[in-house]
Amino acid sequence: MVKIRSKTILPLIQGGMGVGVSLSRLAGNVALNNCMGVISTAQIGFRDFSKRSQFEKNIDALKEEIKKAREISKGNGMIAINAMVAGTDYKQMITTAVESGIDAIISGAGLPLSLPEIVGDADVALAPIVSSAKALNLILRAWQKKAKRLPDFIVIEGFKAGGHLGFSKKDIATGNIQPLEDILKDCLDLLRQKELDIPVFVAGGIYDKEDIKHFMDLGASGVQMATRFIATDECDASDAFKQVFVNASKDDIDFVISPVGLDGRCINTKFTKALKERKPDIVKCTNCLIPCNYPDTPYCISQALVNAVNGDIENGLVFSGVNGYRITEIVPVKQLIEELMEDYL
Ligand SMILES: Cc1cc2nc3c(=O)[nH]c(=O)nc-3n(C[C@H](O)[C@H](O)[C@H](O)COP(=O)(O)O)c2cc1C
After folding, report:
1. With a 6 A CB cut-off, is 15 part of the ligand 1 pocket?
2. Strand, coil or helix: what is 188?
3. Ligand 1 neighbour 87 (Cβ under 6 A)
4. Core-most of 12, 54, 170, 284, by most CB within 10 Å?
5. Are residues 272 and 162 in the same domain?
6. Cα–Cα dist 274/262, whole Å
7. Total of domains in the chain
8. Mutation pick for ligand 1 pocket among 13, 17, 38, 43 (CB with most ligand atoms within 8 Å)
9. Does ligand 1 come within 6 angstroms of the Cβ of 204?
10. Range with the lowest mean pLDDT among 244-248, 251-255, 260-264?
11. Among 197, 199, 206, 198, which residue's Cα sits nearest to residue 224?
């Protein structure tokens, strides 16, 4: 078990998945089973953008999803949000989650240097997502200097993760990538040097209980897993989205360019294959990402992710970790957690 502020959970976090892949149903059920369930705030109001302004809808939808997740969890485990620094509504998503009584905030896709200042002295656990000890060091310094605060836990995300990867295009192209094991070692050394005792969770390509044991033996306090949770009954995505994983083969796992300026790992669809040839038309810009430079952006990532989660796979973008193709069936969250956490129950 891992202690995070006043709560104790099993050493498993379900990684936040936008757009709409990890909402209240998935996060609530993960928490019900005494782990940390994470709601992705990315374009969370996507279901009815047409009716009202996207900005207001995102705030209302986040409040609703947190409330529902809390009801499903029956007070077990922890409920967190994942908020991307690159989102234009980053600050509002965080203040809304704090007001709604969220247990934890996990933040990446950029360095979350201002996170503790936004949260103030609210009783919320804070965690940065980092992909190097250098980034962790920067965050520790900034948080201590600006807000006299330390992370309550840390998520290290390695190269095998799904979605946006925290590695430069050049390093990906040349293969100059530190293995997750080495990043973990460097981060643990850094924390030791600073005499800090902060739980560290590792993420990216972790698939089964042997992988979990491997990283726990190396000193991790727990793991964050996302792709495996897509293949659950309770995952908030459409059945068509889940079936993409069941049907995928190893060759289907690929990279996609992203308007965020980072590479992303995905399962190829007609849409991602076509992107290599031509730039699709952008029908409407909702100004969701800070680095997105409309109209020069390569495509509208929000629209592509919404298409996929709703089941329009041909026109959609399906993010996946490196092991997404290994999924063969959709199972209940409880069964998956019992399988993964067998040694810790
Ligand atoms: C479909 C999908 C969507 C994701 N969306 C986000 C996101 O919105 N924000 C984020 O920080 N990470 C996101 N991630 C990364 C996951 O939270 C997680 O850290 C990573 O995928 C772990 O690797 P695994 O999927 O191999 O377990 C996403 C991953 C997937 C597969």
Report:
1. yes
2. helix
3. no
4. 12
5. no
6. 19
7. 2
8. 17
9. yes
10. 260-264
11. 206
Per-residue pLDDT reduced to its tens digit, 79-123: 999 999 988 899 999 999 999 999 999 999 889 999 999 999 999
For ligand 1, whether the C-beta of 205 sits within 6 Å is yes
Domain containing 62 — which CATH number? Answer: 3.20.20.70
Residue identifier of the C-alpha nearest atom 5 of ligand 1? 17
pLDDT tens-digit readout, 256-301? 988 877 889 999 999 999 988 877 776 677 788 887 877 778 888 9
Kindly state the tokens that stand for 29.
């059920």
Distance CA 344, CA 284 (A): 48
For residue 163, the CA-to-ligand 1 centroid distance in Å is 5
Q: Are residues 114 and 188 in the same domain?
A: yes
User: What pTM value is reported for the model?
Assistant: 0.97
Asked whether residue 228 falls in the same domain as residue 291, the answer is: no
What average pLDDT does range 134-146 have in this prediction?
A: 97
Give the bridge partners for 201, in sequence order.
Answer: 155, 222
220: pLDDT strictly greater than 80: yes
| Contact 107 CB / ligand 1 (< 6 Å) | no
Does 125 lie in the same domain as 248? no
Asked if the structure places residue 345 within a domain, the reply is no
Whether 229 and 251 share a structural domain: no
